[in-house]
Write a structure and sequence with these properties.
single chain; Amino acid/polyamine transporter I; 1% strand
Length: 457
């Protein structure tokens, strides 16, 4: 965030071009595009599975969208007071959560449509399409603003519910060094619980947040604050997973229904400790899941549109058209969700996300060197994250491809393992090239410093 603010709000691509090399910019943009596609598939599945599995969720999602669009109109067109706008629009969203319990999607749309994954996949990416092409104040920003209150309120009162119930953990405190998805190192470090480091937050803070802050002094509370809240959300989800079922066997049965169902059940239990009816609590939990996933998805599609323009606009000016890049991103996202390949990419996505974080640390380190500042505090964490995440991607990709080479999978599983394994190796190759370019940049700035020349030269 700070590096971007000091460089006129430059994106990852612009920063890599300026600080490392022109080739680094192209490689990084290619890495980012496939990384974003993994996010679109992973979180697209969360949205679709939640809409299909929790029939109260679509109505809550609809009213959240209505409240968000109204918030944009009230703030930017009608110039209404922000407090009045917030109260009105958040109440609309909360009413939608209640309405979802009495008008579930299978009653409104019919069982076949309400349970159709293709229908909800198209709805999700049409939503993201509008978020990507409309002015940000019209759709994406106000919807995210209203949605943030839903998440904050659910998290705040859910935590109070935890202290009220004081539940015991029923899952074991420890596991073996290696479990089904891999060994403790490197897999533990690529779980999606971004309380300390995150590639996604790095992308958003550089090309998004840095252009919105009025003062550099706001960077610390905003950047640090969002990571703190992310950490609290991760702990909240961990407590839900570890306490709401009577035994590991019961948890194993519940996990087959998907993470959305478990999260909604946990929110219902802890909000129920404060007097909220169970069905409304489940509806609240389901809309929290959709909010967390869809707000990421709409930004992903927007960033993919920008990456398409930066990568391909030199080939043809048609790629500068925002509708073209957005359409391509949406189609690829729908294909990934409906194909079923998403189930092979969660750990792959985790590795890619945290590898992106190590590349962010690389950019920060090079910038610190260029400014003549101390850089050890970002250099050594970068080395650890880079080695760890490359190892995680190699481990995951090899496991996926090994199933293909061994002939142990067929049909959809064959294609899914093959494609995701190849994407993983592609990301590793990109990362190694970027690491080499970064190493050359380190040496360049060291040489300039040793010669007594200004580092910025």
């Amino acid at each position: 965030m700070m590096v971007a603010m000091r460089n006129e709000g430059a994106s990852f691509g612009g920063l890599s071009h300026k600080l490392i090399s022109p080739r680094a910019r192209v490689i990084l943009l290619a890495f980012i595009y496939f990384y974003l596609l993994l996010i679109a598939g992973a979180f697209g599945n969360v949205v679709v599975s939640t809409a299909v599995g929790l029939k109260a969720a679509p109505m809550a999602w609809l009213f959240l969208t209505i409240g968000g669009i109204l918030a944009g109109q009230m703030i930017y067109k009608w110039r209404k007071d922000i407090i009045l706008t917030t109260v009105v629009t958040v109440l609309i969203a909360l009413f939608g959560i209640y309405l979802g319990t009495i008008l579930p999607s299978d009653q409104v749309l019919g069982a076949s449509i309400a349970s159709s994954r293709p229908v909800w996949a198209v709805v999700a990416f049409v939503f993201c399409y509008f978020a990507a092409v409309l002015p940000i104040w019209r759709f994406a920003l106000p919807i995210n603003y209203v949605a943030s209150y839903i998440v904050f309120l659910g998290l705040f009162f859910g935590i109070i519910g935890i202290f009220t119930l004081h539940p015991d953990f029923t899952l074991p405190a420890t596991t073996d060094f290696s479990i089904k998805i891999g060994p403790l190192w490197p897999i533990l470090f690529v779980t999606i619980a971004c309380g300390s480091i995150s590639g996604w937050h790095s992308i958003v803070s550089s090309s998004g947040t840095a252009r919105q802050l009025e003062n550099e002094l706001d960077a610390r509370p905003v950047g640090g604050g969002v990571m703190f809240v992310e950490m609290m959300l991760a702990i909240f989800a961990l407590i839900i997973a570890g306490t709401i079922y009577a035994s590991p066997v019961e948890y194993s049965a519940a996990i087959k229904l998907g993470p959305a169902a478990i999260f909604a059940a946990g929110v219902s239990k802890f909000l129920g400790a404060l007097g909220m009816p169970a069905d409304i609590g489940r509806s609240y939990g389901s809309v929290m899941m959709i909010v967390l996933a869809i707000t990421i998805m709409q930004l992903v599609v927007r960033f993919m549109r920008v990456a398409t323009s930066e990568l391909l606009s030199d080939i043809s000016p048609v790629f500068r058209n925002p509708h073209v890049g957005t359409f391509i991103a949406s189609v690829l996202g729908i294909l990934l969700v409906l194909s079923g390949w998403w189930q092979y990419l969660w750990v792959l996505f985790g590795g890619a996300n945290q590898l992106m974080a190590s590349l962010a640390l690389m950019l920060i380190t090079v910038w610190l060197m260029s400014e003549g500042k101390s850089y050890a505090w970002t250099f050594y964490p970068m080395i650890f994250m880079f080695v760890t995440t490359v190892a995680a991607l190699l481990y995951t990709s090899w496991n996926l491809l090994q199933k293909v080479f061994a002939g142990g999978v067929q049909g959809e599983a064959f294609v899914g393992n093959l494609l995701m394994g190849l994407v993983g190796f592609f990301l590793v190759i990109c990362a190694l090239i970027l690491g080499y370019e970064g190493f050359k940049a380190f040496n360049r700035f060291r040489t300039l410093k040793g010669q007594g020349a200004p580092a910025k030269a």
